[in-house]
Write a structure and sequence with these properties.
With 116 residues, the protein is mostly beta strands. The chain is built from one helix and eight strands. The strands form two sheets. A five-stranded antiparallel β-sheet has the order 6-5-4-7-8, with helices on one face. The longest helix is centred in the last third of the chain and has 11 residues, at 79-89. The protein is elongated. The two termini are 39 Å apart.
Length: 116
């Protein structure tokens, strides 16, 4: 949420709250207007740091905490894509940060955890 504003009570008896937010997955601007006396649902954001197991045809295979693989995440479509491919091709031990909310998941950061 990047902006919250409230209006005065109108002729129907409720003040309104105007919310402006930026979608964390695609950067889209979203707006909502809610009566100030009502509750708002808030999504929870989950972060996981998972090592890369392999890369195949635009997808990344990650090792989960319980030893299974997670094979359904696409490579990001920005400069992070090149960093992941280059680092994995060089044989580096890479860990990606996976952000999840509202049924969507996305790789958002990369870290080299190999010895220095």
């Amino acid at each position: 949420v990047v902006e919250v504003s409230t209006s005065k009570t109108g002729k129907h008896g409720h003040a309104k709250c105007h919310f402006v937010a930026i979608d964390i997955f695609n950067g889209k601007k979203l707006e909502d207007i809610v009566p100030s006396s009502h509750n708002c649902d808030v999504s929870q954001l989950f972060m996981a740091f998972l090592p890369i197991f392999t890369i195949f045809s635009g997808f990344v295979s990650l090792l989960t905490d319980n030893g299974n693989t997670k094979d359904d995440l696409r490579l990001p479509s920005d400069e992070l894509d090149c960093q992941i491919k280059d680092g994995f091709g060089e044989g580096k031990d890479l860990v990606v940060s996976v952000m999840a909310a509202m049924g969507e998941e996305q790789i958002c950061a990369l870290k080299d955890v190999g010895p220095k």
